[in-house]
Design a protein that fits this description.
Elements lengths: L2 E5 L13 H8 L3 E4 L2 H11 L9 E4 L6 H13 L4 E4 L12 H9 L3 E4 L5 H7 L8 E6 L4 H18 L2 E6 L4 H11 L5 E6 L7 E6 H6 L10 E6 L4
Parallel strand pairs: 1-4, 1-5, 2-3, 2-4, 6-7
Antiparallel strand pairs: 7-10, 8-9, 8-10
Helix pairs in contact: 6-7
């Protein structure tokens, strides 16, 4: 039975060790992939030592800039030919904060076997390291990119966190990480927990989760321009 394998990729560029050996072995044997970014996917596939030469492996991009019908067509054709397909995110788990969810939905409609494989998730790693509520949480993707609107969004997340004792997670492009930190410290209440988990599993990994008042008391932090997950909530006592 043809199968859609959901294959996690390293969060940090060279952290292949975070991908379990059995996942690497499955991916090594595939010759059809749908990926958020083809260039990153080919680099990952090459690092695995694939069974086939790289030019013989089909990688179809599914991103905001590509035609989604190309990926859907490639998936249907592969399944019709009895071939397994691998779904790759840009980093971490496919289908989570990732356009690949559309291919998973298509596979479900076609009654194709879907197999999620074990691997790193920046959201879960950040939550694990935050000391905040890991039973009630919500992920919001990207917040507003401008300071006044971001402050409004952060106040909304703070209210949700307080009303429901629910940890709120979001992400931002690396070059705006410092701005997010500054706005959060200016906007959130002193006793609200705020967490930053940056470059998880990478050489520049930085994880800090404190009440806002303690962020302000310590030495000012200058965040690097690296991928980050941010958290708003109540730190466990």
């Amino acid at each position: 039975m043809p199968t859609l394998y959901l294959i996690p990729t390293p969060i940090a560029g060279e952290a292949l060790h975070t991908i379990p050996p059995y996942v690497q072995e499955i991916a090594r044997g595939l010759d059809v992939f749908i990926a958020e970014r083809a260039k990153t996917a080919r680099h990952f596939i090459k690092s695995l030592g694939p069974a086939k030469p790289l030019p013989e492996i089909l990688v179809v991009e599914l991103s905001d800039d590509s035609d989604p019908e190309e990926a859907r067509h490639a998936f249907r054709e592969a399944i019709k030919d009895g071939r397994d397909v691998g779904l790759l995110s840009e980093a971490g788990c496919p289908g989570v904060a990732d356009p690949g969810a559309a291919i998973v939905a298509l596979a479900q409609r076609m009654n194709v076997r879907v197999v999620p494989l074990v691997g790193p998730s920046s959201l879960l790693l950040a939550l694990m390291a935050s000391g905040m509520n890991g039973q009630q949480f919500a992920f919001h993707g990207y917040l507003s990119p401008k300071r006044p609107e971001l402050a409004r969004d952060l106040r909304r997340l703070e209210q949700l966190a307080r009303q429901h004792d629910q940890t709120q997670l979001f992400i931002e492009t690396p070059y705006r990480s410092q701005m997010v930190l500054e706005v959060a410290l200016d906007t959130l209440q002193p006793d609200t927990g705020f967490g930053v988990a940056q470059d998880l599993s990478g050489a520049g990994e930085f994880i800090r989760s404190l009440p806002v008042r303690d962020w302000k008391r310590g030495t000012p932090v200058a965040l690097e321009k690296l991928p980050a997950v941010f958290l708003v909530g109540r730190l466990k006592e």
